[in-house]
Amino acid sequence: MSRIQSWGKRPFVFVLWGSGLFVALTLAGMLIYPGGTHTDPANPGYAFFQNFFSDLGRFEAHNGTPNWFSAPLFFVALSFAGLGLVFFFIVSPQFFGESRLQRVLSVSGSLFGVISGFAYVGIAFAPADVSPGAHFRFVMLAFRSFLPAVIFYFVVILANRDYPNRYAVVYAVFSILLAAYILLITRGPGFDTAEGILIQATGQKIIVYAAIITVFVQSWGAKKLAGAGQPVSR
After folding, report:
1. Other Cβ atoms within 10 Å of 208 Cβ, number
2. Domain extents for the chain?
3. I want to staple 214 with a disulfide (CB 3.0 to 4.6 A). Which of 16, 47, 174, 190 is the partner?
4. What does pTM read for this prediction?
5. Helix axes 166-187, 132-159, angle to 10 degrees
6. Largest Cα–Cα distance in the chain?
7. Which tens digit of pLDDT belongs to each residue from 4-45?
8. Do 115 and 147 form a contact (C-beta atoms < 8 A)?
9. Please, are residues 15 and 213 in contact by the beta-carbon 8 Å criterion?
10. What is the enclosing helix (H) or strand (E) of 110?
11. How far is CA 205 from CA 80, 163, 165, in A?
12. Which of 151, 126, 144, 149 lies closest to 136, judged by CA?
């Protein structure tokens, strides 16, 4: 584990802070969002189960009011979360050098993870009301890249003698949720009815917070392992 010690705990600390920052800034953005949903522009404020996270990043809220305050908060929150994901996947392969198979699996997972992280940053740079096409493509790229990253790391953790298997369980649960969400946004109800918006927005909240929890737990575990400089007991 000596190579892990050379990285230290700092990259994982950054990821932990990025995860917390995303939650804090988006919650603040929800409190000051001007109002309106896709199907009800007159709705006051932010409706947790009817508005999307992306609504926070719009230059103009659905009610027609300039979104001066929520938009920059969302931009910072998602940019840091995306970069945190990039850093996490860049350093994670250092834990898996026992065999060629582990190296291939971890690097493959990290390639998808880095793509996903940069795609999240791309979402921040492409507000839904300014660049809807680019925004949607970044959304799909982010989630579709995240899934194979999680699956690769689920497998490589099980293959590693030193890494605690409980973190593989976390990845397994998240991969199921993520696959279900990808099916929801591609095969689920449309965005043109109040019922469809309710289902889609609720699904997004579930997967986003599940992603934050997953990355936080994985980063916390990796930080402990890197700090100990030795295998963590199963």
Report:
1. 17
2. 2-227
3. 174
4. 0.92
5. 150
6. 59
7. 554 567 889 999 999 999 999 999 999 999 999 999 999 999
8. no
9. no
10. helix 100-125
11. 18, 30, 27
12. 126
